[in-house]
Structure formats: C-alpha cells, structure tokens
C-alpha cells in the first residue's frame, strides 16, 4: 500500500505541475487588475476630495463642480474594469471546477492502474520540491508608492497601453502635467483606435503643462477629439477656451453653442453655459438671448471693486516680507484668466486695493464687461501668477460688481 500512496502522490504532483502554471498566471493577471483598480480608486477619492475643497473655497462654481465630477465618475467607471474582472473570475471558476473534476476522477484511476503495472516501482517524487512559491502581496500604500510600482511595471511591460493611461492620470493628479502629457502620448501610440476621452484628457494635461495655455498642441488634440465625437463635452469646452485665448470669439461662440445644446433646458449647466455665451455675444457686439438680457445687465464702464486684504494671524509666521501678493477678479466660469489684477508684496499687507479696467490683463477682457465676478487674494511663494501647492489664498464670490461695496479679504488657507 505504501507504493500505491507514493504513486498516487506522484500523479497528484504531476497534475499540479501541469495545472499550476496557468492558474498562477491567472492569479497574477488578477493581481495586476486589482492593483490598477485600487490605484483607480485612490486617485478617484483624492480627486473628489480636491474638487470638494475647490467647491467649498469658491474656486469652482457648482456647475463646474458637477461637470468635473461627472468627468471623474465616467473615467473611474471606464477604467475600473469591473465587468472584465467579473467575467474573468467566472471563467476562472469554471476552469477550476473542471480541473478539480478531472483530478477527482482520473487521478485515482491512473494511480491504481500504474500501481498494477509497476508494482513496487521506483520511489516517488518528493512533493515538497513541486510546491510553488506563491506569496500574497498587499497593495496598500500611498499614491506615490503605487506610482513607483506602476513605473516599474511599465519598465518591464512597455506595451501596456492601459498602464500608460493609468500613469498619465496619476501624474495629472500629482500636478506633474508634463509627465502626464508624455504618458498620454505613449498610450495613444499603443492604442489602435484611441477614443475621444484620451485626446481630451491629453489636451487638458498638455495645456496645464504650459501654464493653462491652449495654443498649439492642446488645441489640436481637442479638435482631434471632436473629429471622433463632435458632441464631446470636455473637448468642446477646451476648444472654446483655446479659441477664446486666441481672441477668436466667433469660434468660441460656435464651440460653446454646440456645448450648451447638450444640457437639459433649465439645468444649472445650461444656464451657466448660456451666461458664458451671452458674455461672448456682448464682446462681439451682438445681442444676448432674451432671457439672459432680462436678468443680466453688464456694469457700466468705469466701475471698480474696492476693499482691503490682510493675512490671518495663523499664517503670519509662514510668510516672508518679499513674497508676492496677487489680488484679482475673474469671471465665475469659463477661462480663469483674471479680468483685473494687482501685484504687491507681503510687506504691503494689510493692503487697500482697487480693481478696475485699468488693471485688466488684456483689453479684450475687462471687469466692466462682467456683472458678477469672483474676487481672490493669494500669497505666491514662487511669484508665479498660476496657483501652486503651498501658496496661501482666499476666494470670495461670485459677487455683484455694481453692489459689492467694500470687500474684506482674509488670506487664511493653503493651496493643497
């Protein structure tokens, strides 16, 4: 009986050696999929937190927040791969059950048959030598650690297009926009038929990498997305912004009119987008729609915003006298370029300010052309007009320009 059991062990080990490699491979594939899903979830949660913080701080309007949240949810659902994992898991379970049935039926039969043929045959194989070395690895860690893991994975698997897409989104969230743009380029080169979402996201990253300027490659990428899907909301917004920055207001109007038709009548997105369109029409000298014309009256030329800026007591110890202070007003939606801006230094605080058309950044975009604006003040550590992590700021509004009165801005938060 001893030989019987040895032969039975030999057959079981042989079956395991035949079955384990594909099973281990499947497990590894599932592990990669799970790792990506966990990274997707980490980025999604962090991006939602950042959006909610921007909404609370007034950096985003509720309409912009809704559009951005919908983009994030769509990307998350697109990349989570839940259906593929479920299908793969079901197929793996079927294969596993079939393998188990084969082992239960054939192994005992073959063991008895070989025992009858060989009798006291040669010694069996040591089962320990055939035991695979499989270790369960956890996927916990910070986003930075997971990015490093993804980079290592792509070094060994440079043809993994989905991996490059995940890396691009990770870089974007970490505000490394140049690296994000490069990763999107790698993914685009590997995907046979890239979808418009890829080109729109790539355009966004490329614009952020060049200080939010849409000229050049970002504009071309947005138009590429629109060539694949003419109604793509993000691409229409980006293309309209690019045309606006180029002072091609007719093209801006065309893009944004295509965009506004996609929103339900009376929805917040539709109302806000119509306001943007009416502002462009006013700049072109054409009449606004009757509903907006009745509810919005642009302030007269020569209007100004007045107020005082001071630093909160909690942040006074974290600044130096020579650091730059920006006080600005911008449109509540659309391009974030200031309509009026004043540049001072921390040593000038508390600062009494006046924002009017004389402090406009460009003659095409003046404070007097907008009835409602967002007003803010920011201490810039680098002196750059583009907000960066570690800057200190406050944001107020939107406020009615004609009735704003004396404003008081207290810089009391830090840009994450």
Overall residue-averaged pLDDT value:
76
Shape: elongated
Please trace the helix and strand order, writing H or E for each element.
Answer: HHHHHHHHHHHHEEEEEEEE
Structurally, how many domains make up the residues? Answer: 3
Ends apart, CA distance between termini = 72 Å
- Please report the total strand number as a whole number: 8
The major pleated sheet works out as: 5 strands, antiparallel
Radius of gyration: 30 Å
Estimate percent helicity.
40-55%
The order of strands across the largest sheet is 3-2-5-6-8
SS-based class: alpha+beta
Q: Counting H and I runs of at least 4 residues, what is the number of helices?
A: 12
Relative strand content? 5-15%
**Poorly predicted regions:** 120-140, 287-301
What features would you describe in this structure?
The protein starts with a helix and ends with a strand. Strands 3-2-5-6-8 form a five-stranded antiparallel beta sheet, with no helix packed on it. It is built from twelve helices and eight strands. The relative contact order is 0.08. The protein is elongated. Helices cover 55% and strands 12% of the residues. α1 (2-57) runs antiparallel to α3 (82-118), α1 (2-57) runs parallel beside α5 (161-173) and α10 (249-260) runs antiparallel to α11 (268-284). With 416 residues, the chain is α+β, with helices and mostly antiparallel strands. The protein has three domains: 2-130; 193-295, Tetratricopeptide repeat domain (Serine Threonine Protein Phosphatase 5, Tetratricopeptide repeat), CATH 1.25.40; 305-414.
């Amino acid at each position: 009986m001893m030989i019987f059991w040895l032969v039975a062990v030999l057959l079981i080990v042989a079956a395991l050696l035949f079955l384990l490699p594909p099973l281990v491979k499947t497990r590894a594939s599932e592990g990669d999929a799970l790792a990506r899903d966990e990274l997707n979830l980490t980025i999604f949660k962090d991006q939602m937190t950042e959006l909610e913080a921007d909404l609370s701080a007034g950096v985003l309007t509720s309409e912009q927040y809704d559009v951005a949240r919908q983009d994030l949810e769509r990307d998350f659902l697109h990349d989570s791969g839940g259906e593929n994992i479920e299908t793969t898991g079901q197929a793996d379970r079927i294969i596993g059950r079939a393998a188990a049935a084969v082992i239960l039926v054939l192994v005992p039969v073959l063991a008895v048959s070989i025992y009858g043929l060989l009798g006291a045959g040669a010694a069996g194989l040591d089962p320990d030598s055939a035991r695979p070395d499989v270790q369960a690895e956890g996927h916990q860690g910070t986003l930075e650690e997971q990015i490093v893991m993804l980079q290592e994975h792509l070094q060994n698997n440079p043809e993994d297009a989905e991996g490059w897409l995940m890396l691009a989104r990770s870089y974007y969230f970490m505000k490394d926009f140049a690296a994000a743009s490069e990763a999107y380029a790698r993914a685009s080169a590997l995907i046979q038929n890239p979808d418009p979402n890829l080109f729109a996201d790539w355009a966004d990253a490329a614009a952020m990498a060049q200080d939010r300027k849409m000229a050049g490659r970002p504009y071309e990428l947005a138009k590429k997305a629109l060539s694949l899907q003419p109604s793509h909301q993000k691409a229409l917004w980006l293309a309209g912004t690019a045309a606006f920055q180029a002072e091609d207001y007719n093209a801006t109007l065309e893009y944004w009119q295509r965009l506004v038709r996609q929103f339900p009548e009376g929805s917040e997105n539709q109302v806000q987008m119509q306001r943007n369109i009416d502002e462009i029409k006013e700049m072109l000298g054409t009449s606004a729609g009757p509903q907006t014309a009745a509810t919005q009256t642009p302030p007269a030329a020569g209007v100004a915003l007045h107020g005082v800026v001071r630093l909160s007591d909690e942040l006074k110890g974290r600044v130096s006298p020579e650091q730059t202070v920006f006080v600005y007003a911008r449109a509540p939606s659309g391009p974030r370029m200031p309509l009026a801006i004043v540049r001072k230094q921390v040593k000038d605080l508390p600062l009494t300010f006046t924002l009017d058309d004389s402090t406009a950044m460009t003659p095409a975009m003046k404070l007097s052309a907008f009835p409602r604006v967002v007003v803010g003040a920011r201490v810039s550590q680098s002196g750059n007009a583009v907000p960066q992590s570690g800057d200190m700021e406050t944001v107020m509004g939107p406020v009615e320009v004609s009735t704003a009165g004396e404003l008081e801005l207290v810089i009391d938060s830090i840009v994450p």
